[in-house]
């Protein structure tokens, strides 16, 4: 919760404003900044968001916005959002907002005067309110961390937004668990009440239930299964046939599976190639060959996207970690994602998933799980894992291995876990 029961909102505004100034001038986070806000401020700073920004960038307008909204899965539950939240927003002088998984606003509705005020900072449909674009804010941060978030007044990173309070909850595809976007309520300080956070959580769960009822039964023959953990060449099962992909096709499939809404040619180029000299012609040739492997009805273009539901071992691990099922997640984690891949976006995803898996195992502290990780090929030089294992199972071989790693990797007294 952003505000504890009995706390004085005016005093909290002043306290958080001072903390915000300390962070933006000296980079220091002090109490009573909540951890979810402190982490978001740090991500915002790393993304080079300026606290002095005055408004979001509008990326979709007119026909482009209408076409994108019509095709988005959350369009199917907009009637439900309006039924559950529309009256609350209008009566309370609040706004109902829905964004996609990239923090791009799809709908912003509610009290007319409040909507006009919000429009002055481009809190409007088509605007990008991702945390990396507008700093800490409930819808952008909710999709960044994939959990419900409440942001109170001066907890916002951009000063222009600090007169607002908001609460948002992520919405997922009920079949695959994939993040679709978030539903948000935005307004005044009164929304710092714990009921507003519980309210948007309940609405998000209702939307997921509604999507489950609306989703047609899927024929397994019309789905695609992707296996990419622990192997340089991914396997795909499509149309009842299993295929081994080339390394480049494996990278493309991982990225398209992560972006069901599709990626433009320029976005794929940036995600795949460090060398800016690679031309769109090269990428189109790769995609033509991949289409021949998958089938013409599976891979679509403009934007490039997969036209069938996709399940992947990466999604399974992330979903299980997200609900705290660490042992179940580790049972699927057969190694780092495409360990030989060099595509920048795949490297980032590989590191993030490895870090999440390692952190979950260390937090669990199960000696058997930690031992399995440390003795796996990808964990042999993982100092953090060996240190955690030594803390719960300090046998002579474990302690000796940790000492050897510390001597090998430590240059300043701290062991460094290698990046897979």
TrEMBL record:
Transmembrane segments: none annotated. One of its GO terms (molecular function) is DNA binding. Residues 240-306 form the OmpR/PhoB-type domain. The keyword Transcription applies. InterPro entries: GAF, GAF-like_dom_sf, OmpR/PhoB-type_DNA-bd, WH-like_DNA-bd_sf. The keyword Ribosomal protein does not apply. Keywords: DNA-binding, Transcription, Transcription regulation. GO terms for biological process: phosphorelay signal transduction system; regulation of DNA-templated transcription. This is OmpR/PhoB-type domain-containing protein. It comes from Streptomyces spectabilis.
């Amino acid at each position: 919760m952003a505000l504890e029961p009995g706390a004085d909102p005016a005093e909290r505004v002043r306290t958080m404003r001072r903390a915000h100034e300390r962070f933006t001038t000296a980079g220091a986070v002090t109490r009573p900044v909540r951890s979810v806000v402190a982490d978001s401020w740090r991500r915002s700073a790393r993304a080079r968001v300026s606290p002095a920004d005055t408004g979001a960038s509008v990326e979709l307008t007119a026909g482009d916005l209408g076409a994108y909204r019509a095709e988005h899965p959350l369009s199917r539950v907009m009637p439900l959002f309006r039924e559950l939240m529309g009256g609350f927003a209008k009566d309370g002088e609040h706004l109902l907002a829905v964004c996609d998984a990239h923090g791009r606003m799809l709908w912003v509705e509610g009290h007319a005067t409040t909507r006009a005020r919000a429009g002055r900072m481009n809190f409007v449909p088509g605007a990008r309110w991702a945390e990396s674009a507008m700093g800490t804010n409930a819808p952008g941060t909710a999709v960044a961390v994939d959990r419900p978030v409440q942001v109170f007044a001066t907890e916002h990173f951009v000063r222009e937004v600090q007169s607002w309070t908001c609460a948002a909850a992520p919405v997922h595809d009920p079949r695959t668990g994939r993040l679709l976007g978030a539903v948000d309520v935005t307004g005044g300080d009164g929304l710092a009440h714990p009921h507003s956070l519980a309210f948007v959580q309940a609405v998000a769960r209702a939307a997921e239930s509604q999507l489950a009822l609306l989703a047609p039964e899927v024929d397994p023959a019309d789905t695609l299964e992707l296996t990419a953990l622990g192997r340089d060449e991914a396997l795909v099962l499509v149309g009842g046939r299993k295929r081994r992909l080339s390394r480049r096709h494996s990278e493309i499939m991982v990225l398209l599976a992560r972006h069901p809404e599709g990626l433009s040619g320029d976005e794929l180029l940036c995600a795949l190639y460090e060398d800016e000299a690679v031309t769109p012609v090269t990428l189109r040739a790769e995609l033509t060959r991949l289409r021949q492997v998958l089938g013409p009805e599976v891979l679509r273009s403009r934007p490039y996207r997969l036209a069938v539901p996709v399940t992947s071992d990466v999604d399974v691990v992330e979903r299980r970690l997200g609900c705290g099922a660490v042992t179940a997640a580790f049972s699927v984690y057969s190694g780092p994602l495409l360990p030989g891949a060099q595509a920048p976006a795949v490297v980032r995803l590989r590191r993030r998933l490895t870090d999440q898996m390692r952190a979950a195992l260390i937090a669990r502290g199960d000696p058997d799980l930690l031992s399995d990780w440390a003795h796996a090929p990808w964990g042999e030089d993982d100092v953090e894992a060996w240190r955690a294992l030594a803390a719960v199972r300090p046998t002579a071989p474990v302690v000796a291995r940790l000492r050897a790693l510390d001597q090998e990797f430590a240059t300043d007294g701290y062991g460094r876990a290698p990046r897979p």
